[in-house]
Design a protein that fits this description.
The chain has helices at 2-13, 21-153, 160-181. It contains 3 helices and no strands.
């Protein structure tokens, strides 16, 4: 049991968390070699990649800012063109309304002129028809009156010149009486 106790005391003196001295020295030298290799070889490459990445990100941000400014400029130009197009459309609409109103006025004036021409032509035609009817009626009435007078007198009134004068005088007297009674 004493042997067991000695062995236990020897084990208790050595802490399992603290390695023995030679192992600690070999570990520290290995760590220093690995640290030196990382510091000389790997760390510059990592820093270089990080710098490139930072530059790319910053360049991307600058490019994005430039694109944003350009997009804003294009948007402003678009808005200006849109406003100009709306203004132009309003102007064209106004011109079309003015031209339409002018065309309507011209068409009304033309219609009025044509109506007046038609009415004047109608009055002229009516007057011509009235004169033709009066002349035809005068000849028919004169012939009937001459025939009737010839039957009453018992002689033929064949003298055309005299017959026309008598008929014209008779009809003129009738017209004067008709106008006087109006």
């Amino acid at each position: 049991m004493i042997a067991n106790l000695v062995q236990l005391a020897a084990e208790e003196e050595q802490n399992p968390l603290i390695p023995p001295g030679p192992e600690l020295l070999v570990g520290a030298v290995a760590f220093a070699i690995v640290f030196f290799v990382f510091w000389k070889k790997l760390l510059p490459n990592i820093n270089k990649v990080l710098d490139e990445r930072r530059a790319a990100i910053e360049g991307g941000i600058e490019e994005a800012d430039a694109m944003k400014v350009e997009a804003q400029s294009v948007l402003e130009q678009y808005k200006a063109q849109l406003a100009e197009a709306r203004h132009e459309a309003a102007r064209l609409r106004q011109e079309a309304q003015e031209q339409g109103a002018q065309l309507i006025a011209e068409m009304r004036a033309e219609g009025q002129r044509q109506r007046e021409e038609i009415v004047a032509a109608g009055h002229a035609q009516i007057e011509a028809d009235r004169k033709a009817a009066a002349s035809s009626l005068r000849q028919d009435v004169g012939k009937l009156a001459t025939d009737l007078a010839g039957k009453l007198v018992g002689e033929s009134l064949e003298d055309h010149a005299r017959q026309s004068r008598v008929i014209d005088r008779f009809l003129d007297e009738l017209e004067e009486k008709a106008e006087a009674t109006r």
